[in-house]
């Protein structure tokens, strides 16, 4: 049993119901999803069909005869159940969740096939289209971003992280396509159709699609980089020394990489995100290409998502920290294993500062700076996005590592947790239950944690103890600059006192901090 203050908050069922979907996902299991899509750059639209293999989950009077799916700004054209045309209605839009697709008389069979034909519209929030003048290669480009609730704007679905399924996809496009799965070699003569398979069950928000003038090059024994031809060699050089090393390091901390391949798509210059953890195909910003490999550690974060977020997933966006807090924790464990423990702690110090700045700049910190969120009033999960789930979540896990006895004591729990919930979705209460069950002899230590403050109170969390050696080096140099600036008068004076040797051993984070100072 958890501490009383937490038990009082426990939902009637775990995992907690996701309120950010209009679907009745609790009534059906998705056994498999097949996408058959066509990309039209002329119309800036994707059209096609999605086919679900479904199973009813309830018996007797509780068995649902209606099927509800999420849509948002979609043109739904036809619905078929087991090959027969079915009636459907699109309900009035409910901001920000979209429009519920209602299918009556779903099927008299417990297992059935649902096929929906659809087309995206010019209001689609899932896709970004670029014309030929907006890319350096002079060819059009499209990429998707479905997190948190934008999969419903690409295709009708149970758009919740609580629902996972395997996927297959057949995508027709005049330009090369990448997808969040493994490419299936096609022996047909139609070179404009690209086929993919995702054998690990994933939620809809993790689907990633991009199409454009893409070339590829190997960057490891199980990794390939995709990008526009003009930057391919730079991307290959940037990643080829480190990606496999990151994967092997993560495997030692957690367990074997589940997904087969780990590829990277370096997007066009206007890509507005740092990265997106689409399984098998990390979507990355071109700003990672620094030509000195100084930004490569960012890949450790997206790679870590292969376990936290992709393999083990938050059941709803209220518990987003289970995705991102764990990912930042694993990212820093990877970095620490490669570069040393002081580097891990220095990254944590920077994260602490970012967390403080994020909370200070929030319009509503009382609501959005808690680790566990409450988005059950139709709040858009995008509105709650901040540094909090990343850094506050990391600090909780780092605190647990510390009080439980360090990495040697915490690492067995990491492996147990990710094995227990692999291919599943969970909430914070299930995480806590698993933690307490794993450490029965350390219940008093766990009870000493101020869970109410960590999970539900706004503002900064209790500060853990960090190794400050790398930060101290930066501050000492900065203090020397400030002191000498009061005495030195000319550029030559400064050159005699300071030189490149002072910073030759700085890592990229130390460089960044010295610039900020």
From TrEMBL:
Matching InterPro entries: Aminopeptidase_N-like_N, Aminopeptidase_N-like_N_sf, LTA4H, LTA4H_cat, M1_LTA-4_hydro/amino_C_sf, M1_LTA4H, Peptidase_M1, Peptidase_M1_dom
Give the superkingdom in one word: Eukaryota
The residues the record assigns to binding a peptide are 272-277
Cofactor requirement: Zn(2+)
Give the start-end ranges of region Disordered: 1-20
Family of this protein: Belongs to the peptidase M1 family.
Q: Which CDD domains match?
A: M1_LTA4H
Which GO terms of type biological process are on file?
A: proteolysis
Q: Which residues form the Aminopeptidase N-like N-terminal domain?
A: 32-206
Q: Give me the residues that bind Zn(2+), please.
A: 301, 305, 324
Q: What is annotated as the active site?
A: 302 (proton acceptor), 390 (proton donor)
Any idea what this protein is called?
Leukotriene A(4) hydrolase
